[in-house]
Amino acid sequence: MTHIEKRLTEKNMKLLKMEVIQGAHAGEIYRLEVLTENGENTSLIYKEFASERNNEVEIFSMLSSCIEPFSKVITLWASHPQAILIDDLGSPLKNEFSLLSAQHKKALLEKVLKRFAALHYSKVNIREGLKVHTLNSVWLEWAKNQLKRLCYECSWAESNWSKTIEQTYTKLNVTNYKQKCPQVITHGDPHLENIFYQDSQVWFIDWEWAAKSSPLRDITILCQDIYDPNLIQFISTSYYKKLKNLAIPFEDYLQDFNYFYIDHTTMMLAWEIEKFFLGYTSEGQIQEIVEFKINEIIKVTNEQIKWST
């Protein structure tokens, strides 16, 4: 009996079938078909954390009461090998989002933003140890190095892109930015591949980067899978309305959005280039992605400078 079968047996479940879920993720992920103690067949997801990426175990111990309403977690094992068992939520939103009409995209984003508002309104006692996320120079340095690699590899890559981003961080003093909005519990990694819609509800997985921060931390990460400026503007405008109970001045909200959006766009610029070098993205795709994100950084930088003068 394997350790997975043993763990399922302890939960009064019998393993019927197991398949590996491939992808660029940390740890090992399996889709399990099990027989429950009620005699029903059901599909579950079992994830074993990589030794250097097991922060989610500690996060759940600190925030279980906060996370449970937003994630269909069945159980978590803190002993070796550390792992989590959750309901199979089907396909992430990323798989279908680009195929939707503009109207349906907005309707789906409204549901996602409504769930984020519920999370960001959460009132829980947070144990000492939950990190506070602030902006720094990590993504800037990574992006500069990645853009240099891209210039060596692709003739269309522009050598001044790295300097453009560095100038943004200097002009706006991004690395020393102090958030204006109240600190809330944030998911920290809400890309569309970590968001699901099942049973008429939005669910989140992968909480390893959860931390206290501005609510705009989550919202600007969500925007990284959106390649339509109108939809990004829709997200920004719509979410401000959903946070009305926090009584955040619009100027503070907008400034947090701009700064976090610049930093997270820089982060994803670097990560998307990494995926290209790993073979997950074609050259045509990475060119579109890089050019879009560079233009977004320039646009938001100019807007922030204009707005603050």
Describe this structure in words.
InterPro entries: Aminoglycoside_PTrfase, Kinase-like_dom_sf. It comes from [Bacillus] enclensis. This protein has two domains: 3-87, Phosphorylase Kinase, domain 1 (2-Layer Sandwich); 94-308, Alpha-Beta Complex (Aminoglycoside 3'-phosphotransferase, Chain: A, domain 2). 48% of the residues lie in helices and 15% in strands. It has helices at residues 3-10, 55-67, 94-97, 102-120, 138-153, 161-172, 216-222, 229-242, 250-277, 283-308; strands spanning 14-20, 28-35, 41-48, 73-77, 83-87, 184-186, 195-198, 201-204, 211-213. The strands form three sheets. It has a five-stranded antiparallel beta sheet, with helices on one face. Strand 4 and strand 5 form a beta hairpin. Helix 4 runs parallel beside helix 8 (229-242).
Topology (SSEs and partners):
Elements: H1 3-10, E1 14-20, E2 28-35, E3 41-48, H2 55-67, E4 73-77, E5 83-87, H3 94-97, H4 102-120, H5 138-153, H6 161-172, E6 184-186, E7 195-198, E8 201-204, E9 211-213, H7 216-222, H8 229-242, H9 250-277, H10 283-308
Antiparallel strand pairs: 1-2, 2-3, 3-5, 4-5, 6-9, 7-8
Protein name: Phosphotransferase enzyme family protein
GO molecular function: transferase activity
Domain Aminoglycoside phosphotransferase: 175-232
Please provide a brief summary of the model.
The chain has 309 residues and is of the alpha+beta class. It has helices at residues 3-10, 55-67, 94-97, 102-120, 138-153, 161-172, 216-222, 229-242, 250-277, 283-308, and strands at 14-20, 28-35, 41-48, 73-77, 83-87, 184-186, 195-198, 201-204, 211-213. It has a five-stranded antiparallel beta sheet, covered by helices on one side. Strands 6-9 form a two-stranded antiparallel sheet. A two-stranded antiparallel ribbon has the order 7-8.
